[in-house]
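Box 3.1 A note on notation
Throughout this textbook, protein chains are presented in two layers. The first layer is the amino acid sequence; the second is a C-alpha cell string describing backbone geometry. Keep the layers aligned when reading.
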Amino acid sequence: MTELEKEFTSSIQSNEIVQNVRVGRAILATFIAALGPLSFGYCMGYSSSALEDLVHQSSSASATGLTDGQGSWFSSLVTIGAILGSPVGGWAIDKFGRKSTIMLCVVPFVLGWLLISFAQNIPMLYSGRIITGMGCGAVSLAVPVYIAEISPAQLRGALGSVNQLAVTLGILVAYVVGVVCHWKWLAIIGAVPPAMLIILMYTMPETPRWCLGKNMRKEALDSLLWFRGPEADIENECFLIESTLDRQEALKLQDWLTPVIAKPLIISLGLMVFQQFCGVNAVLFNAAHIFAMAGFKNGKVVSIAVGLVQFVGTGLACIIMDKAGRRILLLTTAIGMCVSLVALGVYFEIYIPPEGEGSASETVSLLGSISHSIPAKKISWLSILCIVLFNLMFALAWGPVPWLVMSEIFPLRARGPASSFATMANWTLAFIVTKTYQSMADTLQNQGVYWLYAGFCFVSFIFVYVLMPETKGKTLEEIEAMFDKKNSQYERIH
C-alpha cells in the first residue's frame, strides 16, 4: 500500500471519529434551514383553509371571490411556480452556494404572501401563488442539499428527514391557524417563517463541500471547524472531500450518460415519479368527503387530522431512518400503501352513497355489473383506517426519502443541475396528478383511480428492489464511489 493510500485510509478512519464531534451544531443548522421547507409546507396547506373563505366570497360579488374552477387554479398555480423556481434554484446553489440560495428564497416567499394578503383582484391572488411557488421550488432542493452536505454520515438520514418533517409541520400549522384566521391574516402569518429564516440563516456557515468546489479551502476549513469543533481533525476530513474533487471538471453533455450521473439520476427520477403517482393527492382530495360520509362534517377539522398523521409519521421516520435504512423503509411502506389503496378501492366499490349521491339500495361497480352494496356509515371504519394507514406509510418513507436520496446520491459537480432536474420533474408530476385526478375519477370511478395508484405502488416496490442501493451510514464520497467504481480511490484501496 502506497503512502497516499495509507493516508487516505487513515482519513476515512478519522472521519468516523469526526462524525461523533459536535453533532449539535449540525442539528442546529438543520433546524434553522428547515424554516425553508416549513414555509413550503405552509404554502401547500394554505389553499385548503383559505379556499373555503375565498370561494364563499364569490357569492357576495367580492373582487377576490373565487368560483370552484378558479379555486382549483389557485391551488394548482403553486406547482407552476415551483416548476419555474426549480431550475433557478439548481443554478443558484452552484453559483452562490447552498446557504445563500436558501436566504434568497425568502424574497419570493415574502413578496408572494404580501401580494396575496393585499390582493384587490384575482390576478393578484394568482400572481402571489405563482411567486410563492417559485420559492417552494428553489427551497425544496436547496435545503436537502445543504443538510446532506453538513450532516455526519450516521445522522444524515435523520437530519435529512427533518426537511419533510418541516413540510408536514408547515401544512399542519396552516390547517390549524386556518380554523381561526381569515385568509388575509393567514397569508400575513405565512411571511413570518421566511423572515426568521433570512435572519437566522445568516449566522450559519456555508457547506464545506461547496467551498472546496469553489477552491475556497480556508472557508471550507472554517466551516468544518464550526461544525466539528477544535477537537476534530478537520484537515483529514477536508482531504477526504478533496479526494473526489480532483475529478470535478465542468459537466459535458456526454457526462450525463456515465454511470456516476446516469444511475443516480434514474433512481432519483424514479422515486419522484412514484412519490407523486402513489396516489397521495388523490387520497387527500377525498379525505374530507370520506370523513363526511363517516359523520364528520367540518372539512377544516378533517384536514388537521390528516396533517397530524403525516407529521407524526414523518417524526417517526426521523427516528428510524438511520437504523432501518432507506431501502427497507421504501419497500415495506410501498406494500403498505398498495394494500391501503386496494382496500380503499374496495370500500368505494361496495358502499352505498349517502342519499343524494346515488342509489339508496345498489350501485354499479367499475366492471359494469350491479354489486351488493353496504351503507357508507356501516363500513366507515374501513375508509378511515385506509386513509390513516396510507398517510402513515407515505410519511414514513415516500414523503422524506425521495428528497433525502436526491440530496445524497449525485456527485458534487452534478448536484445542482441534477437535483434541479429531479425537483422540476417532481413538481411537474404534482401538477399533472392534481389537474387530472377529477377526469380520471369520472372515467374510472373513485375505486378505479385508487386501484390504479395501488398498481403504481406495487411497481415502486419492484423499482426499489431492483435499482435502489442502500446509502445508510455512508459518507457522500462513499456513495459517489458506489456509482463511480472505475475512478474511485475507495475501490483502489479496498
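Residues 1-21, 358-371, 490-494 have pLDDT under 50 and may be disordered. Residues 412-467 form the longest helix (56 residues).
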